[in-house]
Structure formats: structure tokens, C-alpha cells
Amino acid sequence: MSSTASGRSGTWRNWGGNVTVRPAREVTPASVDELAVAVRQAAQDGLKVKAVGSGHSFTAIAATDGVSIRPQLLTGIRTIDRKAMTVTVEAGTPLKRLNVALAREGLSLTNMGDIMEQTVSGATSTGTHGTGRESASLAAQIRELELVTADGSVLTCSERENPEVFAAARIGLGALGVVTAITFAVEPVFLLTAREEPMPLDRVLAEFDQLRTENEHFEFYWFPHTGNTNTKRNNRSAGPPQPVGQLAGWFEDEFLSNGVFHAAQLVGRAAPAVVPAIARISSRALSARTYTDIPYKVFTSPRRVRFVEMEYAVPREALVDTLRELKAAVDRSGLRVNFPVEVRTAPADDIALSTASARDSAYIAVHMFRGTPYQAYFTAAERIFTAHEGRPHWGKVHTRDADYFAKVYPRFGEFTALRDRLDPDRLFQNDYLRRILGQ
């Protein structure tokens, strides 16, 4: 299985392996017109429509037993506008290809998540984000969006054109139409210096506000069953470039972070009792390092160890309490958690269903190795996150529904009203959207 989702005999399976579905029909349109025809045809045939990207969501957000639209022919850069400093890209373009193409043109996105396997439309539609003091999610960097709506027409939206659609569709969950092109703000390519170093959890929590304020991009990984973290600070640099050496890069990123880590996960899954000991060794395996490179080579890293993930955004000021409660819950339970907990931040934005909508946010992501029972851990974590009015990542495991979201998203009603207008017959509905948005 490659790093994208795959299926055999008409079945589709996501990257995490926890969602499997068999669509009635698969369509791979080669143009926006072909996609519009497929949408109209599905409506005539009484079939629901979902576009599916690389399958990196752990929820069933892209699942359908109707028409599954695969965007792999809708890829590549349409236009680069150096005056406006924007790039317009086809919706099926993998982030990896966009990053490489932009670098070749001397350009870069301002911020990004830590993996780049997803398509641009899948990543933005689910609210994919990195970490940043001022710079927000991928969707917050969108300047214009093109989508095919339920009647098969092509709608363009921006701050000037159809602004009420723009306010919602940047993180549209696939509920408002099929995204066909995205225009991102870009800037001249720059250098980032990454400083990675181990740090005790107590110190990170005590100094969290300072670490976040002093660094453009701060994140850390806490290893459950230990008091250890690995911190990462990314800041703009005048250079010169000092990339990670090939051998050191292979050792840290492939051998330790993927190869040995995968072996440790297999041992932990087979013998849960040894997980705390493995965690203590893992948390000390990575040493401090500093390197300087172009943004995508610093922000992103390969993820070859498959896992299942839950991530919640809590108000930033609630981060320290939330994480202390999570640690206490793990410590007093019999849980054996074999994966580090990732913590990032984002500034408030103005997108209706962004996890950072109208509030400065901190993200806590919990993971379990694929094939390891995760329900008890995720249930305990979710209870803590929701007590702090947490908002789950739309593409990661959670159990929340429309009633809950109406309470934690001030603009939830604005989104559902727009959906009533754009998709009154629920052509783009599936079980997941029925649960999170209501009927």
C-alpha cells in the first residue's frame, strides 16, 4: 500500500486503515467540465457524491456508497501571479508537488502542516494546519476558491466575490460542493532555522507562553509514561542554508523516526507491558540538532509508521491545564500509550468552521499505532478535551455531533444555512456529515 489510500475490487480504504467503503461508481474527471457533468449525472441517478483526496483523514468524511470523485487528473499549477503574489492550483495536486513546484519558482507558502502527502483540497477542506504564532492554517492562506456546486455550476468565491461562501468554503468539509481549484497567497522563498532539543515536560509547560511568544513556530512532542518532550522551534533565518546532512538525516528521520520507531511499535503492540520502558528509551533517542533550509524541508517530515489519530483544538490559555489532565489520566490508568502526543498552536482566524475560528488555539494530538486498540485512550482524552470546549480536527477520530458543534462554533448556524442554500437536496451528504452538521 502506498502513502495514499488504496482499494481493491472497487473498495476504498483510507491511509489509517480504519475506514473502508465500496462506492457504486468511481469517476476520474480530466477537467472541471467533466467533473460538473459527473455531478449532474449523479443527481439524475439519485446517487450521493463525494470527492476523495489521498485518504489521510481518519474520519469517514470522504466515504460514500454513491459516486466517488478521484481528482488525480486535476493537478498542477494553473497560474502564478507575481504581482498579487498568488498561485492558483488544481484541487487534486498533492502538497508535496505544490511545494516542490513553488520552490522551483522561488516561492513558498507561509506555513504548512508536518506531512505533505495530502491533496491541496483535502488538506484545506478538513482544516489541516501546522504551528504558528502569527501564521495560521493552510485554509487561512487561501485567497480564492473554485467549486462545482450541487446543480453542476462552477462557483468562484473570494473576499470580493461571493464573500459569504468564501467565509465558509475554505474549510467546507466537502459539504458545499467539490473544490476544483484553490488560489493561495505565496511569498518569496525564505529560510527557516529549526532547533530541535529534548526538554523536560514540566519546563515546557512552565515556559509555554514564553516559548510560543519568542518563536515564530513552536511545537513539542510529549512521550507518555515519561516526563520528557522533544521541542522544535522554527524561525526565519538570513542563512546560509545548512541542511541536515544526508547520513544524519537518514539516521534521525528514517532509521530512528521511522525504522526503529516502527519496530518499537510492533514490540509494544505485541507486549503492552514494555511500552513505558520503550517510551523512556524513545524519548531519549533523538538528540538536539539545528539546521537551516527552505520551508517545506523544515516544516514537513516523512511519516511511514501508520497510526490512528485524534486531535482537538482547545483555547490557547487552556493548553497547560488540558495537558496536565491528560498526563494524570494516562498515569492513573492502565493505558499503555506507545506514541508521542503532539502539541502545536495557531492564531485566531475568520473561517466559519476553522478549529481556530475566532479564538487563539492550541492543538493536542493523540495517536496510537495502527492495529493497537485506541478507543479507551481516545475516550479518556476526548472527555478532557471537550471539558475545555475543544474542537476536534474534522479529519481525525472524534465522537462529537451537530449539537456539540453548535455550542463550540459561534458561526455554526451560518455554515449550515449556506449549505441549505448551496446543497438543499444533500447531494454531498454522507453519514459523517449527517452526524456533524445535522440534517
Annotation keywords:
439 residues, alpha+beta, 8-stranded antiparallel sheet, 5-stranded antiparallel sheet, 20 strands, 32% helix, globular
Any idea what the radius of gyration is? Answer: 21 Å
* Helix content, binned percent: 25-40%
β-strand percent reads 15-25%
Shape: globular
User: How many individual β-strands?
Assistant: 20
User: Largest sheet at a glance?
Assistant: 8 strands, antiparallel
Number of helices: 14
Mean pLDDT: 92
- Main-sheet strand order equals 16-13-15-14-18-19-17-20
Multimer state: single chain
Low-confidence stretches: none
Structural class: alpha+beta
What is the distance, rounded to the nearest whole angstrom, between the alpha carbons of the first and last residues? Answer: 36 Å
Walk me through the structure:
With 439 residues, the chain is of the alpha+beta class. It is 32% helix and 24% strand. It contains 14 helices and 20 strands. The strands form five sheets. An eight-stranded antiparallel β-sheet has the order 16-13-15-14-18-19-17-20, sandwiched between helices. The longest helix has 25 residues, at 246-270. The chain is globular. It starts with 11 loop residues before the first strand and ends with a helix.
